[in-house]
Amino acid sequence: MIAEPSWVKSSYSGTDGDVCVEVACLPQAVRIRDSKRKDGPQLAIAPHTWEAFVAHVQVD
């Protein structure tokens, strides 16, 4: 059986729950989904792509 990945809610997600994004980091891909649609579509990107994205959007 394949274990479900650990999903983490974005710290930038809205506090009222209307715009929430979750991320699961796996060795082969980083998966991104809407937290309100757990059975909905997911975006999967390469880990190095995710690292570049995070480095670009981080605020000091």
TrEMBL record:
It comes from the Bacteria. Residues 6-57 form the DUF397 domain. InterPro entries: DUF397 (IPR007278). This is DUF397 domain-containing protein. It comes from Streptomyces hiroshimensis. The lineage of its organism: Bacteria, Bacillati, Actinomycetota, Actinomycetes, Kitasatosporales.
